Amino acid sequence: MQNNKIFLVAELSANHNQNKELAFQTIKAAKDSGADAIKLQTYTPDCLTLNCDLDDFKIKGTLWEGKNFYALYKEAMTPWEWHKELFDYAKEIELVCFSSPFSKEAVDFLEELGNPIYKVASFEIVDLELIKYIARLGKPVILSKGIATKAEIEEAINACREVGNNAITLLQCTSSYPAPLKSANLSLIPQLKKDFGIEVGLSDHTLGITAPIAAASLGARVIEKHFILKRELGGADSAFSIEPNEFAQMAKAVREVEELLGIPTYELSEKSKEGRVFMRSLYVVKDIKKGEVITQDSIASIRPGYGIPPKYLTQVIGKRANKDLWYGKALQFGDWE
Predict the structure, then answer these.
(1) CB 100 within 8 A of CB 41
(2) Distance CA 20, CA 125 (A)
(3) What is the C-alpha to C-alpha distance for residues 300 and 328, in angstroms, rounded to an integer?
(4) Domain ranges (residues) in the chain
(5) Which is it for strands 7-11 and 37-42: parallel, antiparallel or unpaired?
(6) Vertex 53, ends 50 and 57: CA angle to 5°?
(7) CATH topology (fold) of 7-261
(8) For residue 45, what pLDDT is reported?
(9) 7-261 and 276-335 share one CATH topology?
(10) Torsion from C-alpha of 119, 120, 121, 122, nearest 10 degrees
(11) CATH class of 276-335
(12) pTM of the predicted model as reported, rounded to 2 decimal places
């Protein structure tokens, strides 16, 4: 996140399906697909919810309809004993590995592993004590907006700043799994940057790769997408995760968008300067003898651009040529008295 490239994050999440070898394979595939980082989630079911069968603890209206919260998180969690091996392997293949902690204990654990970046998940953005505990470490913090109100976003950002951390990136995120395209609201990305004065990005749960590409053109500096080797593997997050070939297509398109966007400057590139030959300029279109008056009929604004700019046409008309000017000559400032 220290250079000018958009930071592309492959979210492992539950897509290891409790198979460590599958986790290693997924990390390698993320690297090969153009990801800058692989992101884990560090929690236990007990730090997120209660092992309770009351109706409050049953999921309603989502992909996981009817499932118990505790059971879902138990299925989806990345075993803590895997973390060091996953971090070490990612480092070995030169892929950034970081995580979203869901408790102070998880933060302490990740610090022992040298976790370089902390992501606060969308549903945790209201946990200001956890955010402060993370931000006090002075490392980059990524906040996922999710369903937070503007006031809650401001509180989360202020929680970071109160402990001296300004290395904050805010991700537009629709906390729906999968998220319909019409709910992505990508136009909020530049607005978030304007309103809060921090870097912005996208945590995307839509299907396909259109949203990340569009986000890149809107100023996203971080793009996160759930990543799986094959959706047919199934699992808690498989339905809204993209496969390696899709991630590679996304990465290629995002890098092309970066090139297309360039930087906001009026300074011409060398290629553009070369192209100025195709601009109009003033040329002699009728032979003019030395001493003759230059008339409207004897010069014209045409291509190519080797003559003086057309804006000088009215200044030249009526002047006398100080040399013979021939048909097809590019008119220059020293050609008249």
Answers:
(1) yes
(2) 29
(3) 10
(4) 7-261, 276-335
(5) parallel
(6) 60
(7) TIM Barrel (3.20.20)
(8) 86
(9) no
(10) -130
(11) alpha beta
(12) 0.85
